[in-house]
Amino acid sequence: MKNRTKWPSVYLAVLMALMYLPILLVIIYSFNESKITSVWGGFSLRWYTELFRDRTMFEALLNSLFVGVVSCFLAALIGTFGAVGMSKVSFRSKGVIEYASQLPMMIPEIVLGMVFLTYFSLLRLPFGMITLIIAHTAFCIPYVYMEVKARLVGLDPSYVEAAKDLGASEIRAFFDIIFPLMLPAVASGVLLAFAMSFDDVIISVFVTGVDVNTLPIKVYSQVKTGVTPKINALCTLMFAITVIVIVIFNIIRRKNDVKTLENKDL
Amino acid sequence: MRNKTSLERLAEVEDVILRLENIKKSFDGVTVLNGIDLDVKRGEFITLLGSSGCGKTTTLRIIGGLETADEGRVILEGVDVTNEEPNKRNVNTVFQNYALFPHMNVEQNVGYSLKIRRRSKEDIKKAVSDALQMVQLEGYEKRMPNELSGGQRQRIAIARAIVNEPKVLLLDEPLGALDLKLRRQMQIELKRLQKRLGITFIYITHDQEEALNMSDRIAVMRNGVFEQLGTASDVYDRPRTSYVAEFVGSANIIRGTAQGSDENTVRFVNSCGTGEVSRNGAAIKDGEDVVTAVRSEHIDLCSPESGAKGLRGTVKEKSFSGGMLRIEVGLEDGTSVVSSRHGINADWVPGDAVIASWDPEKAVLVDLEG
Fold it and tell me: In this predicted model, what pLDDT tens digit does every residue of B158-194 receive, in sequence order?
């Protein structure tokens, strides 16, 4: 009541005008019958039908999903092992290593793309699906690592002690206690990583070959030759998928937090 | 070989279920335990009492195997288990924060130790339901830990620890997180449970009331050693040191120099006046330092005009709680003593000059620590 400042509304207005209005417009125009974006020609699913008829577009989608799933799986393995391993040891340079393993999230993508390009050329790897997967795995690992590590740090060490006290061996305690308790973190890390992989253009452009397109690359190259309303439909779909993934991510994370926090506080 | 037989004899004849021998432990160069010796008899309820940082939790963790002693031995039923893993010891722990597995329901939590020992499903079900009955939570099998109240979690943690019938149950401040009323009730229940099960309890607390209420014996810990080990009345009525007297009985510690003592009574003087304490065989000669502990309920106050002997001071503060009136008297040397009595009425108001005295029989000579 007292703090009737205008700033929140101003912030909201700016956010709306810059972010959500354009998204909303794209969504609306994806249902536009007319071929010219600025003219409303009535509601239609025409562009969605055309989109699904476009074989190259569909291939690009499959490629994106394949790259996303495979590299997320690999990142899940490597990131989880890394986080579990690091949680069990302590040495002086541990902080440096942890920092180094999270740095890729902050390095500009254009730099990463260049680096991968040079590296893969040096190794004489054929550019295409393999290089895409290696690059995506590399930048997905930190997301999994970060999530799992946070989970393990927050995990009350007395759970494992209790398990051992009740007769479990070290390995048994890991599989009975730590593993199930960290799975949600692995899942949320993977979802976050997938969202990153699925919409990546810059790194992918550098490391893909001529014959393999991912969906974002396809969109990008189409836009260069002129925006068709089909792109609006595609963006709408991608936006929807991203929102769904992020929502699932947050649900998993919240459930997980609530469960263990409640147990800990009392 | 010979050593082992003597240990086994110890376990059988003297009925010592657990022996700690000169346990020492330090973390990063800081000594936490500095030579702990303890014999625990079968079925005994022993409390380790002390303020935080005194080493009581470390002692418990060494018994449970969650920590390894730097020096000394842990002998359980005549077997040296000093370097055994926790899962190889027939000892279970009730953790301070309960440590119930959040992803398992009550039945899975309580039955966990039996599942590890590959007992049959029917066996486990039966044992779990018996254990739940023991802690009066029948029918809670399918609840998750986060659906339980603090007191219920506490009981489940106990059920989980006793289901496998350990030789010794270790309890690390198990009532610390509960409110006062529930704590009182759980004290009685725990004691009853311990009698019924016949399991040896080693109990940790910083609450002297809890220790006095429940224990067969109390070990008052400070700076990694036992300052005194004895029954409740030992540590309460016959504290060995000033620390024990203050910590367990909230006693006043009064110092002076012996003067004019006889064979039954030690008399002493300090800058505020004189005091007396029964000798109880102590070999204190005139001119030596005297430290005596007098609990507040034994301190009497009277006006200086009465001509009574004692310590001169001024009433500083009055407060009332738990049916007792507490009067703090600032003595002339800057120290203070507390006098307490039942009821809320007192003849004194802050600023009154008073003489504090006591019955020598109620005062105890103690060693000064620190």
Answer: 999 999 889 899 999 988 878 888 888 889 989 998 9
pLDDT bracket for residue A263 (50, 70, 90): very low
Rg, Å, chain B Cα set: 25
| Average pLDDT in chain A | 86
- A/B interface, count of CB pairs below 8 Å: 75
Cα–Cα nearest to B313, from B334, B296, B293, B297: B334
Q: Could you give the CA distance from residue B254 to residue B251 in angstroms, rounded to a whole number?
A: 9
Rounded to a whole number of angstroms, the distance from the CA of A95 to the nearest CA of chain B is: 20
- Between positions 95 and 124 of B, the ones with CB within 8 A of A are 95-97, 99-103, 112-113, 116-117
Dist. CA B169–CA B44, nearest whole Å: 11
Contact flag A161-B97 (C-beta cutoff 8 Å): no
Q: What is the rounded average pLDDT of the residues B100-116?
A: 94
**Domains along the sequence of chain A with CATH:** 9-44 (no CATH), 55-265 (1.10.3720.10)
Q: Which domains does chain B have, with CATH numbers?
A: 2-242 (3.40.50.300), 243-365 (2.40.50.100)
Q: Report the pLDDT value the prediction gives residue A262, as an integer from 0 to 100.
A: 47
This prediction has a pTM of 0.79
Task: Say if CB B45 and CB A146 are below 8 A apart.
Answer: no
